[in-house]
Amino acid sequence: VVLAQENTQIRDLQQENRELWVSLEEHQDALELIMSKYRKQMLQLLEGRKREEAEPVLKVHQANSGEIESQIDRICEMGAVMRKAVQVDDEQFFKVQEKLAQLELENKELRELLSISKESFEVGREDLPD
Q1: Which 8-state DSSP code applies to residue 128?
Q2: For 22-73, how does the pLDDT look when each residue is reduced to its tens digit (9 = 90+)?
Q3: What is the pTM of this model?
Q4: pLDDT confidence of 98, banded at 50, 70, 90?
Q5: b/e for 19-57, b at 16 or more Cβ within 10 A?
Q6: What is the DSSP secondary structure assignment for residue 130, as one 8-state letter?
Q7: How far is CA 43 from the centre of its chain?
Q8: Is 1 helix (H, G, I), strand (E, B) or coil?
Q9: From the centroid of its chain, how far is CA 23?
């Protein structure tokens, strides 16, 4: 009799255990469904916020980009002007160097002529009687 009662209790407990497992699985499925919907909504909310937060940053970035591009253009223009100035300066320097070399050569030739002239004058003086 005791064994029969225990067997009945064991069967009842096993049945209750199965029912609890089914209930637990149903609750887990429901919780999983709720959590997936929650995650989906949070993802949508975060994406919406990111777009809202990113929009002003994007505008500032675009404005800064335009400003940087204009500054780069100005720097390139200044570089071109500097290159032209260096080129003109180099050309002027070479002209001055050429003129200097020409004057040095002319000076040397004039000194030689002067030297020849002095020598002939001195020779002519020696030929003159005292």
Answers
A1: S
A2: 999 999 999 999 999 999 998 888 887 777 666 776 777 788 888 888 888 8
A3: 0.41
A4: very high
A5: eeeeeeeeeeeeeeeeeeeeeeeeeeeeeeeeeeeeeee
A6: -
A7: 33
A8: coil
A9: 60
